[in-house]
Amino acid sequence: MLLGVGAAAQDTTFDDGPTLADRLLAGVVRIHADEHGFGVVVGADRDFVYIATAQHVVGVDAPVVVHGCLGALPAGSVAERVGGMAATTEDLALLRVARPPDYTLAVRALAPAARVAVRDPAWLLGRDDVCAVLPRSGAVAAPPDVRTAWRVDMPGVLGGSSGAPVATGRGIIGITTDSDDANITVLDMAHIARRVRAVGASFDLVDARNEPPNDPQAAELALAEMLSGFLRELRDAQTVLRQPTVKREYFVRTVTEYDQAAERFLAAKDKYTGTLVRHWQPDVAPQWLALRDRLQAVHDNFLAVNSQARQIVETERVPKAVRDRMEALDPELDALQGAIAQFLRLLSQRRLVNANPTP
Asked: pTM above 0.85?
């Protein structure tokens, strides 16, 4: 229950492309039908789980069996085709399987198309009946065309990947419908969403909200989320520790939440300085360093409470020395609120354009 010890919780994730792709495998299935291929879970309702795949994988009449890549769906689940998806201009089918008890769909999966650029690295999630991220990356070659398909340069893929999703460092852009020795054709997920909803099925996937760590945008989002969360927890912990009495359960919960915010601050305090120097105006990094040091000094005041944490838990009373220490923090916390707001304005309004982003 020590202040400053804990695991960070966050909204945006900051995984590199291969790490994100490994996580996204939870929504991928292997498919055995007319051919062997893959599909991606796109939604679920009370009774069914819905899977988008390439039409040529499932054909028309052959039995369809799916196997969840990471066990979210049981191996050997029998699937049925959802009607109304036939089209002459695209290679798309929708399957549904009975929803298992306690099934949970990981909905954060998609790349926002507006933030995917030509030459962004891309990864294939499944090939040759093996649920795995292809070890080598490709690169986005062209955005969706009139056939609502991306082109991704990925030499050496050939067959065995039909229906498999393709992801960049920001999430899934679509499913594979064709490939040769040089590139693959990827049907756009936004188009798939429209088709799925048009037949009355569930499409639940949303933005993955992942910022590749070597993109300057990751620094902006990470610092904004961390600073807002840390200031909130500083205020909450100060309020609790200024009271003469505090219920044990409430104190423990406050400490836990503070720990999470403090852990995230400690992880970020030295991580993004170089990025700020390279990609922002010259005055931004020094302001960050000054703000960081002020936050560390305030954090040290809470660390000093560790020696009395057991006493607070056992007696449900806050010693006067601790209450006085917390009250003395008022001017600095008020000033930090303004300093954080000013720094976040600098991040959002004065950010330099990154000429070579690499998701």
From this structure: no
